[in-house]
């Protein structure tokens, strides 16, 4: 499917209706909505209401408020070319880089060719995974991460990861986009290797799992994630969520869970450049004796 939305909204008409457990191939446009195609295309004069398109929404039968949507990312096929840009007045060091800049980046044999001297193994992931909220202000469309997902820009969300999203409206109304061929934790200049891609996802309604914000899981790790006005506050929220998960799922006391987090949990920055910086708490599952 290739229908897109630019706002997270419960009034968006479903582009597709599926059953829980069905698999969908999402044809995702890059975050620039395919405006940047050659070096001369600069990241200025964007139509800000039509960037960061999210393919969807998909209505999942049986999804109800209070449930959790399991987003199983099965495969990501990226296009042959992406781009990385410096956008004026945006980025972690924005005042030091006031001029627009564009680099077109070919993808060859699993590498992003940044320059003649630099090639980077790709590790693609969708930056935006989103469900419809009960209410939303459209100041930032799909660009700002919230409890319902959004532009999380977490490189943990690659093929093989399960992303858990709390469901707020009937059918969930899931959408996905903003694929990066590769990104460093932090996404410090404000863009990564932005690229078109086909993302294959299985969607499952989980009526037992209850979460307040997105969680991630791989074969090896369980992760909680959060955003706030500061990275310190985001870390506190993600840490509290991890403590809650350990207590609920593993039966430890809150004191044990807090101390365990100090021993084994890594606090990692996902992105530093949105209005609300994002972090994730990463717990190795191998420590638990089942």
Task: Outline the secondary-structure elements.
Blueprint: E1 4-5, E2 16-19, E3 23-28, E4 54-61, E5 68-86, E6 101-108, E7 111-115, E8 118-121, E9 125-130, E10 149-151, E11 162-166, E12 172-180, E13 194-206, E14 215-217, E15 221-227, H1 231-250, H2 254-264, E16 266-271, E17 278-284
Parallel strand pairs: 2-4
Antiparallel strand pairs: 1-4, 3-13, 4-12, 5-6, 5-11, 5-13, 6-7, 7-8, 9-10, 9-12, 11-14, 14-15, 15-17, 16-17
Helix pairs in contact: 1-2
Shape: globular
Q: What does the average pLDDT come to?
A: 96
Radius of gyration: 19 Å
Instruction: Please report the total strand number as a whole number.
Output: 17
The helix/strand order is EEEEEEEEEEEEEEEHHEE
Number of helices: 2
Strand residue percentage: 35-45%
Annotated CATH homologous superfamily of the largest domain:
Acetamidase/Formamidase-like domains
Q: Major sheet: size, sense and barrel closure?
A: 11 strands, antiparallel
N-C termini distance: 41 Å
Oligomer: single chain
Query: In percent, how helical is the residue content?
Result: 10-25%
State the name of the first-level CATH class of the largest domain.
Mainly Beta
Structural classification: mainly beta
């Amino acid at each position: 499917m290739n229908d897109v939305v630019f706002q997270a909204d419960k009034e968006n008409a479903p582009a597709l209706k599926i059953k829980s457990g069905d698999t969908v191939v999402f044809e995702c446009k890059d975050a620039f909505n395919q405006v940047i195609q050659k070096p001369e295309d600069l990241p200025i004069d964007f139509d800000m209401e039509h960037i960061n398109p999210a393919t969807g929404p998909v209505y999942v039968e049986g999804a109800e408020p209070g449930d959790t949507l399991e987003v199983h990312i099965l495969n990501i096929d990226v296009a042959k070319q992406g781009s990385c840009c410096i956008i004026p007045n945006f980025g972690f060091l924005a005042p030091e880089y006031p001029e627009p800049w564009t680099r077109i980046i070919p993808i060859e044999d699993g590498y992003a060719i940044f320059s003649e001297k630099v090639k980077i193994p790709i590790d693609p992931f969708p930056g935006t995974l989103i469900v419809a909220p009960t209410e939303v202000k459209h100041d930032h469309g799909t660009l700002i991460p919230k409890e319902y997902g959004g532009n999380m820009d977490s490189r943990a969300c690659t093929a093989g990861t399960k992303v858990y999203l709390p469901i707020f409206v009937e059918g969930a109304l899931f959408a996905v986009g903003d694929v990066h061929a590769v990104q460093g934790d932090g996404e410090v200049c404000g863009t990564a290797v932005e690229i078109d891609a086909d993302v294959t996802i299985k969607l499952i309604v989980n009526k037992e799992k209850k979460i307040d914000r997105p969680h991630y899981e791989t074969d090896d790790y369980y992760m909680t994630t959060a955003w706030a006005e500061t990275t310190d506050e985001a870390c506190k929220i993600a840490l509290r969520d991890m403590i809650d998960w350990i207590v609920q799922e593993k039966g430890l006391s809150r004191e044990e869970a807090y101390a365990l987090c100090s021993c084994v949990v890594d606090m990692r920055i996902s992105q530093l450049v949105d209005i609300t910086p994002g972090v994730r708490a990463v717990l190795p599952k191998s420590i638990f004796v089942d």
